Amino acid sequence: MTNSEPKTHAATGVWPLIHAERLALADDLAGLSEERWETPSLCSGLSVREVLAHLTAGASLTPLRWLAGVIRCRFDFDKQVALRLAEHLGANGEETLERFRRVVTSTTKPPLPAIAMLGEAVVHAEDIRRPLGLRRDYPITVLTSLAGYYQGADLVVMAKGRIGGLRLEATDGPFAVGSGPLVSGTTLALTMAMTGRAAYLTELRGDGVPILRRRVPRRERT
Prior knowledge:
Blueprint: H1 11-29, H2 34-37, H3 48-58, H4 63-72, H5 77-88, H6 93-102, H7 114-132, H8 140-150, H9 159-162, E1 167-170, E2 176-177, E3 182-185, H10 187-194, H11 209-215
Parallel strand pairs: 1-3
Antiparallel strand pairs: 1-2
Helix pairs in contact: 1-7, 3-5, 3-6, 3-7, 4-5, 7-8, 8-10
């Protein structure tokens, strides 16, 4: 994964955007019934409540605690994610949401660039919102920065390889990258497809969509 920050924001300028996205998600989830908290998310095997706990974990995890967890889990990163998620999962949806609200303005993070934390806030928010039928109109500058970041990311998120040999063009903003068969759509749909969310493929158009569909899993892991 590249360590570059978005060109439109210095690293310190990304944090207010992260905080704004966390707060918007928390507000969207206020008053959600317990039954709806158990709705399957876009992340394989996780409910929307569990994905929210994963976001809380990411905002609570220092580089030292991250490394300690990796060693404890013997470099099994999926096990590390599950371990930290369980630490922040409340007894019910209301408690899980309250724990998330406590970290809305946190600047704590694992050893990732701040732009990656913004990506977590947006992509996992969509993993939660879409199955619940919730919608947010994200600032196009935020989405364009994220799309630019993910198009070069190929470690934690395998986006770079996923879009290799394709031309991606946003229909609602300036994002465009690559050469080859065309994949066009909103910047959000392109970003979510790049990060492996099959649910957004139906919103894309172009000769490159069938190729991208073969590279996107039916359900994404965290």
